[in-house]
Amino acid sequence: MATTIKDIAQRVGKSVTTVSRALNDYNDISPQTKERVRQAAIEMEYRPSVLAQRLQKQRTDTIGFVLPTFGPRFSDPFFSEFLAGIGNRATQLGFDLLVSTRTPGEEELSAYRNYVQERRVDGFIIVRTRKKDDRIDYLKSANYPFVAFGRVKENFDYPFVDEDSEFGMGLVVEYLIRLGHRKFGVIAPPMNLMFSSYRLKGIRMKIEEAGLALDENLVVTSDLTQRGGYIQAQILLGVPDPPTAIVACNDLMAFGAMSAAQEKGMIVGKDVSITGFDDIPMAEHSHPPLTTLHQPIYKIGGMLSEMLVKLVLNEDLKKRQVILHPSLIIRQSCGPPPQN
Predict the structure, then answer these.
(1) DSSP characters over 160-211
(2) Would you call 155 exposed, middle or buried from its count of C-beta atoms within 10 A (0-12, 13-18, 19+)?
(3) pTM score, two decimals?
(4) What topology does CATH give the domain 5-48?
(5) Matching CATH topology for 62-163+297-324 and 165-295?
(6) What CA–CA distance (Å, rounded) separates 313 from 122?
(7) What would the pLDDT profile of 126-159 be if each residue is shown by its tens digit?
């Protein structure tokens, strides 16, 4: 049977109230009494009730993460690394992580409402922000703690970490132009996602700066999955004068594009160049290895955990908004365009 405060009180000959205050280090308990109580607690293998402690603090010591999913085969290595970063840092800070999955939209928003009303978590981490994000609007109106990986189109006056996608895509396009590419295909994320705007802006800006033109017929959108990238690359590579380089806006879509090219008998890195964004672990070991933009996904998850815990504990955030610069990782999926 588990040891209780009452058992310790009987051992040391003190009241339950005195023992409780000694264990919680109250100033009105003498150091000698505190030491006797703590020693007895150790000897009797006392374990405090986590639930009771949380009720006393009026916190759950839990942060929430609602994973936006679209189908039954949801498997994105980005989220595996991101969740590991969130969860490991949360554990180090004494917090648990509650993860649930919801389809984006009303079902997802309903989950946020329920968690807030039931106070099941102390705050939320939001990912893949949208241009108009109902999740953020709701949490701001409810005055509930949250941090986000990403910005929104307007009024992003909230704590966030974000990658400078515009800068990153500029690095990719500059590199491809130096290799000699002049005709680009783009596989963009869903247009309601905010980072889609930044990534497209970076691509267009660098192409225009080079005095070139981006054929808008070669800009397609996909769902950030490998299958989606495969389908859209088939379209891009099937036109009469196909692009010599395909810029995919995440690694999974780039993998799909590589499969589509290889299915047509093309050699990736020779007949067509393909790039990604994220540098998930598989990027280094794909065939060929993928040229991509590295963002520290695990580190970002940890940063967001730390920011949210500080908000929950009413501690000062030294930086409420952090924008990181991705770095270009050059591998074998790119090369000079083929000579006709």
Answers:
(1) EEEE-HHHHHHHHHHHHHHHT---EEEEEPPTTBHHHHHHHHHHHHHHHHTT
(2) exposed
(3) 0.81
(4) 434 Repressor (Amino-terminal Domain) (1.10.260)
(5) yes
(6) 10
(7) 999 999 999 999 999 999 999 999 999 887 889 9
